[in-house]
Amino acid sequence: MRLDKYLKVSRIIKRRTIAKEASENGRVSINGKVAKPGTDVAVGDIIEIRFGDKLFKAEITYVAEHMSKDGAKEMYRMIEE
Fold it and tell me: Given Cys at both, which of 16, 28, 67, 79 links 23, Cβ 3.0 to 4.6 Å?
């Protein structure tokens, strides 16, 4: 699954356009490497997102095309926030 879509479906970022902008501007990395919006994500990958001075870090635990609002938090495990 594309990174920008994963961020939206998992509700880490609410809108896909914002997820795309964040990754285009170099604020998102996967496994320590800066990622583009079309980068594929897989279970076990570590995502880091910089929101200003905050760092969001999580491990991908599940990948799905569609997810309910309640199930979205099961798609990742927080490492740091």
Answer: 28
